[in-house]
TrEMBL record:
Coiled coil: none
CDD domains: USP-like
UniProt similarity note: Belongs to the universal stress protein A family.
Organism: Natronoglomus mannanivorans
Domain UspA intervals: 4-148
Highest taxon in the source lineage: Archaea
Official protein name in the record: Universal stress protein
TM annotation in the entry: none
Amino acid sequence: MALETILLAVGPGDADRADELATAVVDVAKPAGATVDLAHVFTQSEYDEVLERLDFDVGVDEVHPDEVAARHATIRELAAVLDESDVEYEVHGAVGQHGPAIVDLATDVDADRVVVGGRTRSPAGKAVFGSTAQEVLLSAPCPVTFVRGSEA
């Protein structure tokens, strides 16, 4: 099966592993000529906080989550790497519980692969998936690549 669309889903905890995520996506997308759908998923409280922090005037206009995601630092950092690597991408934003929202986005964009990040949590260095990564791994409509962040 050819890779045409790769969904790279990030959330608030992914800023510290943006480099690893970007490298993993470029390594897969560039040789395949795939388009990357960069998606930032916010819970409602995270979304409200980001709207305030980024000075959106929510009283004047309806603000679409795609617009909020595009202005988020993690998405801008990932987009810069994709630009440098000549990988095509689109930006999406979603509001909801992280795991289900990522699975819904994967379905909506007809993703051939989903890429999510996580961290090593045990002293022995064994990767333990968080609830979001686990839900995506178990429920996504396509293969999922888990990118473990560097050790802190």
